[in-house]
Amino acid sequence: MSAERTKVTVGVCGGIAAYKSVELVRLLQDTGYDPHVVMTKAAEEFVRPLTFAAISGHKVITTLWGEDAGSDSEEEASSIEHINEAQTTKLLIVAPATADILAKFAHGLADDFLSTMYLATTAPVIVAPAMNVVMWEHPATRANVETLRARGVKVIEPGSGYLACGMVGGGRLAEPATIVMAVVETLSKGSVGLRADEAAYGSPGLEAAEQELDFAGETVLVTAGGTREAIDPVRFIGNRSSGRMGYAVAAAARRRGARVILITAPTDLACPAGVEVVQVVSAGEMRDSVMQRLREATIVVMAAAVSDYRVRSVAAQKIKRESARAVLLELEATEDILREVVAQRVVGTIVVGFAAETQDALANGRAKLAGKGVDAVVVNDVSVEGIGFDSEKNAGSFLTRDGAVELPVMSKATMAERILDEVAKLRG
Ligand code: CTP
Question: What is this structure's pTM?
């Protein structure tokens, strides 16, 4: 599997829920996909194409006949662009899907880019409808939905609740995380989600789900985030880890077919879809959770920045300013989780550690590789501006006993794929 992300196309229709598609695109990206956006004319009344262009980093397709928006300006939209988009995408997800687009899809109308692309693609199609409850329950809409279902289109049922029109009932767009979960599942199931007519006729539809699932059958345990060691009930000793690298590894492993357990210290990140998440705070809690789940893992990736020290006696009450002119904190060492994992792993479990260094990165990384007895160490120099801690990007080296693979500056999502590529080679 290459580091290239899987392209998915997000179709956005005109409805109040279109604003939720912005979060959907972001989540798809966080999960490791490469979302491209197609908007209907009506959708532009609710969200500007530029918003999606900025998030996705791609031009947003808004029309069948030229006129583009956002970046990638060299790629002029054209009357055959829908064919290209339809053929290169691995999945089409329409959210929100209005009553109008469901009707067009069901009847094969092709008077705008999205409906034309639907006819031209062999990729799996998911629709997440959102509309007024009476429209949703209208026999015409029900019939269209059933037609699409029978054709193999996956329908993510809308939820119930307050609708923008003031009514209460079914018709609310499913939550973006639920939609991403359906995307992950459809792409990991291979042929599931293919349109039934294509499956029946043996058309090249399978190609749409050809994404390599080279981690199927593996259980990947990932640690992420920076642990926090309490000083008193309101203060803690922490570090600058954002958790992005570990989350990216978890998302990529899930997308490549693994079962994933993510044991995470506090972060600001959304949980990757389809991943089992265990929240912890301190190094001690992380150690307990990791050791509890270790037997299930076939691959362990320890991306967390674990505190090496904890406060020996945590103050029961908030330490007051007046209590002393200086406060001396006595620190004691925390458990080295990685070392314990290596000692207790089942034979065959691959263990990858991280080494965040501020000097002599390669030498220190090599020392950790040998000292900790891990199969590989991802080493990075966190003193380099723009990479590492609290940054979107990373760079470093993947060290094994056999050598080093350089990982030049790239997004953490891409780096996660590259790391998994190397882990797959270790397994091979
Ligand atoms: N690690 C761990 N438990 C700890 C500290 C670190 O499991 N108490 C793991 C990290 O998740 C990482 C690896 O060990 O995968 C290396 O972490 P790092 O902080 O770079 O190394 P340390 O062993 O703490 O060594 P030092 O801080 O002296 O560089």
Answer: 0.64
